[in-house]
Amino acid sequence: MNGLAALLNMQVHYISFSAHADYAQMSTFLKELMPLDIVLVHGEANELMRLTQKLFTEFPDGNTRIMNPKNCESVEKYFTLEKMEKTIGRLAEKTLDVGDSVSGILVKKGFTYQIMAPDDLHVFSQLSTGTVTQRITIPFSGAFGKHISLQWSSEPISDMVSDPIVALVLNISREVPKIVVKEEVDVKSEE
Predict the structure, then answer these.
(1) Report for 70-74, 130-134, 138-142, 180-184: range of highest mean pLDDT
(2) How far apart are CA 34 and CA 72, in angstroms?
(3) What is the pTM of this model?
(4) pLDDT 10s digits, 64-91
């Protein structure tokens, strides 16, 4: 980029096939891949048209788009942001009905996404779970000594409970505002 070297976190996989494959070889290759789009290039126009027609018979479901652009004609491909996740491990053993939800850990590996139970994380990946313990020490002069320490395992409910406790301890030593009556007013009710 602009003459600078950039480190890439990627792997390169090679697929070796000849540009001079016959129809049977190409058909087998395409049936294995089941691509959404096939773009035919490099060939005599009449033969490419025959190949296009033959491929239409191989992929009659309409899920595969077959294009045969003319020389120098650009082909545009738009990618959606939609992602597919695969449930594995204990979560995959459950039979779900329409509308049921799945709760687990989403792990991205290469271009695939997997949802698994936290206990399955070490089985299906090189990751493991851990617990975050939080501790706060608050200066406090009173019956408890010179400070108060609170410690809890970090999770949404524990975090929610600890916040008001910390606020209470921090405000305990503050002077409570006093209500002072400056003037008394005698209010009589009319009968």
Answers:
(1) 130-134
(2) 26
(3) 0.36
(4) 888 888 888 888 887 777 777 888 999 8
Residue with tokens 């996740």: 85
Say which of 20, 42, 122, 147 is annotated catalytic. Answer: 20
Token duo for residue 166 = 């910390």
- Spatial separation of the C-alpha atoms in residues 136 and 166, rounded to whole Å: 8
Q: Where are the domains of the chain?
A: 13-79, 85-124, 133-172
Residue 80 exposure: Cα atoms within 13 Å on the Cβ side: 4
Q: How far apart are CA 121 and CA 113, in angstroms?
A: 13
Verify whether residue 20 is a known catalytic residue: yes
Classify burial at 110, counting beta carbons within 10 Å of its beta carbon; exposed 0-12, middle 13-18, buried 19 or more.
exposed
- Tell me the CA distances in angstroms from 49 to 56, 88, 120, 131, one per residue in order: 11, 43, 51, 61
Tens digit of each residue's pLDDT (9 = 90 or more) over 85-101? 888 999 888 888 888 88
End-to-end Cα separation, the chain, in angstroms: 89
